[in-house]
Fold each of these.
Amino acid sequence: MAVGSATMPEHFHPVVGVRLGVASAGIKKPGRKDVVVIELAKGSRVAGIFTANQFCAAPVHVARDHLERGEPRYLLINTGNANAGTGERGMRDARACCEALAKAAQHEAHAVLPFSTGVIGEPLPVDRIVDALPQALADLSETHWPEAAAGIMTTDTRPKGSSRQLTLDGKIVNISGLSKGAGMICPNMATLLGFIATDVAIAPSVLQKLASELGEISFNRITVDGDTSTNDACMLIATGQAGVEIASVESEHYPILREALKEVFLELAHAIIRDGEGATKFVTVEVMGAAAQKEALDVAYTVAHSPLVKTALFASDPNWGRILAAVGRAGVEGLDLDAIEIYLGDVCLVRNGGRAEDYTEERGQAVMDQEEITIRIDLRRGTIEERVWTCDFSHDYVTINAEYRT
Amino acid sequence: MAVGSATMPEHFHPVVGVRLGVASAGIKKPGRKDVVVIELAKGSRVAGIFTANQFCAAPVHVARDHLERGEPRYLLINTGNANAGTGERGMRDARACCEALAKAAQHEAHAVLPFSTGVIGEPLPVDRIVDALPQALADLSETHWPEAAAGIMTTDTRPKGSSRQLTLDGKIVNISGLSKGAGMICPNMATLLGFIATDVAIAPSVLQKLASELGEISFNRITVDGDTSTNDACMLIATGQAGVEIASVESEHYPILREALKEVFLELAHAIIRDGEGATKFVTVEVMGAAAQKEALDVAYTVAHSPLVKTALFASDPNWGRILAAVGRAGVEGLDLDAIEIYLGDVCLVRNGGRAEDYTEERGQAVMDQEEITIRIDLRRGTIEERVWTCDFSHDYVTINAEYRT
């Protein structure tokens, strides 16, 4: 099941300086394309954000380390095995994969950034991955974005991509990105991988700022089940091949590029929610009128994580009492029930401490019957706004997660 | 569905000074016994703990207020309607029910403590409740504990009770209690109601201490879905009719009575988990070796709330990676993955940063196949222990909550 429109662009604009190749290592299923190599032109810069889970997986440790040492030239991604909870052996395995790719491509091992997603706690089948590398390298092409999008999927039902082309300084520049993730999706990253590349040249400090800020308002604002994965990573790549440079945030092109990148980040993040495990609804939870960012996010996430709200969404039941109860237990001191307002789409559910006087079940039901729903909570005590995205909680969520390993 | 053994005692020991009566007001279903009156002898003392939800329901406000004014003689409980999210009207409705009962029983309105559970946001059908009061008063009996246990149920599939008899100071004293709740169950109370009575005379300060302490380690340590209700309340009643008095915690009988009360509180709280919506497993999450109570509880609740852990429990899948990931995202600073140990029953899952060397799927599966499961997490950095109870997350949970109002 999946919600709404396609999660792939009609056309991926190739990003000059980026080539992608896929191969089959048979990690979980024989014949499945489960290894992806992304090659970056010399001089490319990469900025990343990683999982906040304290027990981050071996590839996260290694990718962070290699990123610090500079000059990344390859991203190596495998699905089917997360190489997490694998102790010292996991670290050796992640490094061994990097070394094998580096050797085949005649680079240093630290030029390779490793990413793994899949089952936790099983040893990584290093030999099979290494054996698949020549196939992946032979497959490298500027146009293989769709194949790579499919190659990084786990329980995803659909590949996820986003692409933009714009003109800066009279030159055509391209942005293309991939993401994956369907379960264990939560704030502060998730079992999600995101790779976004542009051929604009971007100064390292600006690149990191863009990755952090745009990751924060997109990938870090989505939640399927509140579970933060051990393996999440989002990489923003700038190859510098388009002949346009952004040296600082003062650059005249900066706001235009930031806006285009933001659209791509949001599309890729929303694609994960649309493909949330068992999702039948795409839900935006908006909190406004908050006195502080923390309270806005506490309320938004408490609503977005509530199993009772999520099962009501699945049932298309405008059960506003469950939303009200979730707001009330969000841990925000001194909330005034008489002041707050709760909306479902444009329909006011709660006002003056109870059901809005003009609310009718018919009006609520009309919104609930839609596939894309906005729950808006106005705390009416400040000016801060926050927004998170989630999906509903369905029978299929239980089925998918009760049967994942069998 | 429900887990494990019966949740009612073979015999309720009548508590001298307590009589219970039930009646049908047809609040949600015609003919259903949905109104319960508990009458307390003159001189009875009552201590209570209430929901931490900021938007607590009208009856919670009124019960708190009446409790402060002293001399409670009646508890009036209705199911089918929570009288929550009902604004000023809800307050008037709760008071009107108290006044009607007080008038019929020739007492002041503040001698009545009201409790409501059921759907949020619908006006309370005051007239029907008031009309049912004579029937409930006529039904009052020292032996109607089972009928009252059934009368306070909502989505519960089984009535819940616990009872003890002991001898203190050569005199027989009795403890009996009731609870209800199946969904919206979470720390800091839940859609749960608990009523525990003894005929021992207990000084007010001791009674409140017992209610708070025992409520904290029982009702406030259970979670079905992380949703804290607007209506929860747990009342500890001491009628003083048994001829035994506990004037202070220094009393020689205090530890004996406390232990018996603790057993009753725990049995009533566990009965709620055993009857958790859709529950097929009764799960104890034990955290030991913590440096502080907060971190022990943060870890325990993060595991107990994780939809991924709970669906794995439903599938009887020893998916220890999900437990590990939940511990890692619990927000505890400086956790050392290499130090912690995770057990499923007696089987060590995780040690030295990865899967325990002597772990086998067969051993994990043998524990998972049981109906009662303990997940033990030893953080190995302190001496604090905490324990919470939860159940698994099944298809029936979704079914129950997606269809509750239809």
Amino acid sequence: MPLSPYQQLEQEFRRLHAFRGAASILRWDAAVMMPRGSSELRGEQLAALETECHSLLTSPRVSRLLDRADANAQGLEHWQLANLREMRREREHAIATPRSLVSRLAKATARAEIKWIEARQKSDFALFAPHLEEVVNLLRDKARLLGKALDLAPYDALADEFSPGLRSAEIDAIFTTLGRRLPGLIHEVIELQAQKPPVEISGRFSVSKQRQLALDVMRTLGFPFDKGRLDESEHPFTGGVPGDMRITTRFNPADPLTGLMGILHESGHAMYDVGLPEAWRGQPVGRDRGMAMQESQSLLLEMLISRNRPFLRYLQPLLEKTFGVSGPEWEVENLYRLLIRVRRSLIRVDADEVTYPVHVMLRYELEKEILDGELKVMDLPEAWNSRIQDRLGVRPTNDAEGCLQDVHWAVGSFGYFPSYAIGAVIAGQLYEALRNDRPALDEEIAAGQFGGLFEWLRENVHSVGASLGMPELIQNATGRPLSAAAWLRYVEGKYLED
Amino acid sequence: MPLSPYQQLEQEFRRLHAFRGAASILRWDAAVMMPRGSSELRGEQLAALETECHSLLTSPRVSRLLDRADANAQGLEHWQLANLREMRREREHAIATPRSLVSRLAKATARAEIKWIEARQKSDFALFAPHLEEVVNLLRDKARLLGKALDLAPYDALADEFSPGLRSAEIDAIFTTLGRRLPGLIHEVIELQAQKPPVEISGRFSVSKQRQLALDVMRTLGFPFDKGRLDESEHPFTGGVPGDMRITTRFNPADPLTGLMGILHESGHAMYDVGLPEAWRGQPVGRDRGMAMQESQSLLLEMLISRNRPFLRYLQPLLEKTFGVSGPEWEVENLYRLLIRVRRSLIRVDADEVTYPVHVMLRYELEKEILDGELKVMDLPEAWNSRIQDRLGVRPTNDAEGCLQDVHWAVGSFGYFPSYAIGAVIAGQLYEALRNDRPALDEEIAAGQFGGLFEWLRENVHSVGASLGMPELIQNATGRPLSAAAWLRYVEGKYLED
């Protein structure tokens, strides 16, 4: 019997998935294993794979098959209909941007990234500005074309690539709530924490012992080491593909906690991917529901679960045993205070849970203004510096700790930043629902039992894949539409307790 | 100006090269880094890449471009004409086998390889026989189709995939010469070596020190660590792609020499790839000239250069320093005797330089007979055992040390084996020419100066790429057509000296 149009589409997308998985492993290799002199060659391999993916998605054959499958959809199951919808979504994104623009953007961002590295090293924005300008000009064209095709505002069209269904209207609503509450909250928390400063940890903590501890913790979480690895890289990330997860971290011999917290963050991403429905693997419907959902999973595990007392009750004896340490600085309460310190700081990736959204909201504002043309690229450093001072009360002394700190704009990822803060908000709302559903969660975590946590997440988040939009997923999992309320309750409860 | 047909072909083959390079890194990853449970997923990624390469090579577009480029060849340079010829060669190989047969062979060999592993573990040929039977039946079809397309005998058509231009007629001539001389020679050498047995090395040699020594030696050879790596894997191999070479070995803590000799072997392969002309990279003309030439480079470095006194004069102080050892067993003359011991043994990959061709010749005979149908798969164990006893005077006590020892037939690599012994013969002939051209070679090697060696190889072998056929390459490099004479002179001189 010949394959139906829908079945043929499944075949095509399985091929797409194989190419993307190959590319993902090659990117992991580039960050973790590859000799430095091989990057140009690797760039050619990745470009060939990406071009192939783009050709596949935009081929007339896929277009025809989609139309024929839509016209013969009556026999399809619910998840297959969702899969068709996601296939079409991917195709619409791919086809809206002409190949020449894709290629010009690829070249411009490759140049801009190299210049950004140099500019950041020298803290010299002027070096980077013309390249960012070029990227922005091309992105404006892309946003306009994509917006027209998807019937979205230009910025929303870009954001939709990272977090499908996330719109400025919802982002604005959430960020307005956060923006109203956070400045006062940050002030209160810092005052309060100043009254009970934690004892600092000092000493040397061998990387091999840190790695051993991390592997132990990951095993306890249920990370499947028969289908995944832990390695080290300059910037921690989660790579690979479900079925072959590769997470990385960076260990600091003077600090036994930061590398581990990085691993818990990345493990949150990895466990999401591991929990995606196996039966849908290789299909668009079997993917995660975008970067904001991804970030909700990493932040939930790192911030809400691990930087918390029950987890530290589980961790503390492991720390003592692994490093042969004891003393007041190693007590659970002290570790907790060390891990939830709130500070007015300049660097987003080092920021704590409470100030983090402020960093993100600044970038969101600025990138929208740049894209609209309201803010000129050359005026970015001053706008950045004055606004971060307004919001957080700290001012960069150079652009490396200001508008040159993140790679995102250089590589053209406009519309990505909101996912970080929206992810935190989602994590807060999931956490509240999870605690309601599992009253014994704290005791389980303290006993090193993570099965219940991941069972809940698998049932309510992971197993959904991309079969629902993000709003429905969150509504179903928590019984409410997404809002900042639960996260604010969580943060206030955690950081303003007596 | 629009691209000429030839230029468009270069683009297509650059894309092919990128896909193959990606696949090569993914295969390296599978052997060295990948978690065990991810092999099925990796199989899908590799299959998608291979299918893509096959589609590209067999596309009507490439066919049209080849015809148009041939018709407009007057403006092309010499290397471009060679490139066109190699493009056509690759296409003819790809198109001769219908896609359905390619796919059936891929599945049959995947199954057969798994069964081979099990059968070897249990030393039970009966488990493997029906799967080998299936592979052989499909290979017969392939050999017939390929032979018809290339105007070659079926076996030669298969061999041509591994070593372009290598034919049974030449193989037979060389193997007849070797077969006449080797039995007597082996007897004489073993008698002679028995008179001066070397002192055995004993002790433990830490893997990290062995690795350090190996890295030192590789650096001295000129291995480009900015574009390559050394790792460990179960079976040593050379992977990656020129510009990102990945070699592996396996260290034995009880034996400081075998891991290093493996690295020297693989470094011979890697230096060949490193020396291929950069200007032709990504094009068929820029590839190596097949497996026999590859093996000539690895054997030249391992057997003729490294298992020799000048190299050991360079290595000996490094061994003493690295492992903090001294004594009679570490003297150059003793190390030399340890490294050139000749033994009648059963396992090809552990065989010495002199008996090695006997193992290969046996496989060559058997695989031709199996392909012709002269020998039945079920009769293979007995044929193997009685013939290896005839030729070498040893008889396997089970099939794991007999006809189940190599993976080649399971994965369908009929026609591959001769390349190993022909590679040795080429190495012998190149070595003779090299020594004539560089009378100070021994002194250079003893001083740890490998520049002259690789300069000669680069000029005479590596830089040729695939611009010449193997016979012309050898004629140009050595002034003579390929024969076994030089290798026999070398072996007799080395192993029969007083």
